[in-house]
Amino acid sequence: MNSQTNNRFNRWIVRLTLIALFCALCGAPGAAQAESPPVSPEVSIAPDVAYTLEEAALSPGTESQTLRFRLRLTNDSGKPVDLNDYGVMVKDAGGQTYSAGLTEKKNARVFPGKSEDFAYLADVPVWLEASQLNIMLFAWDYAQPSFMKEIGALPVAAAVSEGGSKRQKVYIEVDEIDSTLPDDAMASFEVARSMRIAKDGGWTLYIDLLVENIGTSSYKLPTSLQYILKDTNRLIYLATPVSGGDATLLPREQTTITLAAAIPADKHANELKLHFSKKNAADTIDYGSVALRGSTVLQTSGTSVPVQAAATSGLELRFIQASAVKTPEGSKLTARAELSNTGTALETVPGLTSQFQFAGSGIAAAAVDGGVHPAFLAPGETTVYRFSAILPDVWGENRVELSVFNKKTAGSSTVSVPAALFELKREQVTAGEPLPEGIPYLIGDPVKIEPNNLLDERIGLSLMSLYTHTNEDSGYQTAIAKWKVTNRGDTALTLPPFQTELIGSTGKVYAGTRQNSAPASLLSNTSYVVSYSYMIPLTETGDSFVMHAVDDKTSPSNRLTIAAVRVQPQKESQTNVVSLYPYRIEFKEHHYLWTYDKSDNVFGFKMRLLLNIAKQEQVVVDSGFSKLQLELTDASNRILGTQTVPFVGVNKLVSGMQTINFSNLKTDQVDSRMTVKVYEVIDTPSGQAKRLIQELK
Predict the structure, then answer these.
(1) What local confidence, expressed as pLDDT, does residue 16 receive?
(2) Dihedral, 276, 278, 279, 280 alpha carbons, nearest 10
(3) Is residue 354 within a helix (H) or strand (E), and if so which, with residue range?
(4) Position with higher pLDDT, 669 vs 125
(5) Is 28 helix (H, G, I), strand (E, B) or coil?
(6) Secondary structure letter of residue 569 according to DSSP
(7) Best CA proximity match to 106, nearest among 236, 239, 216
């Protein structure tokens, strides 16, 4: 430090000491008060040199409040003015004075024809209002007992903005925490909002801090700055930055930092204070605190909340309504929300995710939105989200909240921070969209596909058959449906992986199981057959079902309808002609005879079967298509042997005489009252699905 700088520094130390001493003396009981100069909107300190108060703001803290103000010194004289010759204090209506300090490094000389602004901070009692405060200007005068001569006073109330924040703020000289930072590294910390979020079976309190760099240089907050939550019992909960903590603070700019702290289930934000501190080897230095009372964000239906805590974004999220509907997996709860750009500039659509959380337990269920959203929203534009999750049917016995998260970058990774929290009151949750009733449908006709872009417009669907069969041994019904999927285009398309469901007369849903293998792509102008099977209890007695085709790419909670038709299962033929789409099979005649193998002492049963097989429509069938299974049963309905014959591949069924052999039968199994039952079977991941089509005696 050179001698000139050192002298100036020493002079300021002396003067600050004198100001502090003067403030203390003026506040002492019985101290004589000099008559103050009149209050005016402008104070002249010399001919053509004047101070004006450009802006002022009171920021309450937990024990005091900070007055932040900006003075403008205008020099219209012919010579420079040295700020070091003058001083500034704050005085209340009772004559008590409070020291004020500059918050930035600036040249103290204001040259002719120039104006310069100087920013100050002063701590004043929390009960004082702006109308009770004035900025007192004085000149250093060592002939005076106090070494100061008052020049004039500027009213604070005239410069306070009516729209100013009433939230508490803490001002911290950050360079005191880290000496490597710029000398004027000062920041204000303001709690914008807090949200209590269920996470990992417990509760995490997220706090959005608005941090403003009120210095003149960029810097990052030191990692040694600690954020500590304390309750009324002095219990401590450590909060850590999860987003924005490593951001560079630009001069005069606000940055949002999100803190997260694990808290007990019975703890809420209103009971806590956020302390800013630094832990040294010997002790902990506390730089101030703000109360979290009133910071909790919990909105209800119809209200909007900014997606960002800072007012720099025009994006707002509004919760519109919620609905619930029972499904086989549980209650499907869906919350509809709108993201709108209420600002004047183009906004990037954030990556929003969501969960439903039970307020009493800390348990949460991820809620999925399957919609497609634009990358940007122009002013006035809106995009709709439908967040859905499967919850237990008793969900209504608990208070449920919808928490929405915004994905943000944190270093080299991304982190989800709360953007909104809405309460879902049970009485406001409507009955959800009912299960589709299905439009009347004639089997074989093209299916009307919903206009939701889930299927390529060149793909057509038709339900070609639906048969049911009662399995008396297992105690349930099996239904087999065959869909024709057609590529009407001129290029190959991917076979859509849609799922199907049968909905019974009472609203119960029976999920379909797709055949084991299916083609990956559809050739142009070609149709393929895809089969599904369903297990239906014998208690389902309705004579019709709704066949529901749904998207298979999303979770059950968020599936979208491709098509829904109401159909009646087809009646089995009572003749010797049966339909196995796309085949028509005529059982013309059958004969059988017994054989005996002396060497092994076993019998055989040989059946000669004359079939007429016709392919009614030119569609592609592959190895996943149905097969015929023949079961040899005795008079007691015991199965003695089975044979399976495919429609495609090696040893496939053809028109004409077929020979079916059942071997290795024992003597006690020989009976003249044998029956061969013929089934259509489909191999699925859940096992074989069977449909009885003929009994040959």
Answers:
(1) 44
(2) -150
(3) strand 352-358
(4) 125
(5) coil
(6) P
(7) 216
Q: Up-side HSE of residue 171: CA atoms within 13 Å toward CB?
A: 21
Task: State the first-to-last Cα distance of the chain, in angstroms, to the nearest integer.
Answer: 114
Distance CA 513, CA 688 (A): 10
Residue 154: closest CA among 55, 77, 18, 76: 55
pLDDT tens for each residue of 222-276: 999 999 999 988 899 999 999 999 999 999 899 999 999 999 988 999 899 999 9
User: Strand runs (DSSP E) across 76-224, as ranges?
Assistant: 81-82, 86-92, 97-99, 101-102, 109-110, 114-125, 133-140, 148-155, 169-173, 186-199, 202-213, 219-220
Rounded Cα distance between 206 and 529, Å, is: 53
Percent over 70 (pLDDT), the chain: 89
The pLDDT tens digits of the residues spanning 278-323 come to: 877 667 788 888 889 889 888 888 888 898 887 678 899 998 888 8
Q: Distances from the Cα of 681 to the Cαs of 75, 519, 582, 647, 693, in angstroms?
A: 99, 19, 15, 11, 10
- What's the alpha-carbon Rg for the chain, to the nearest Å? 41
Task: Render 317-345 in DSSP notation, one character per residue.
Answer: EEEEEEEEEEETTEEEEEEEEEEEE-SSS
52 three-class SS: strand
Q: Which amino acid is at 197?
A: I
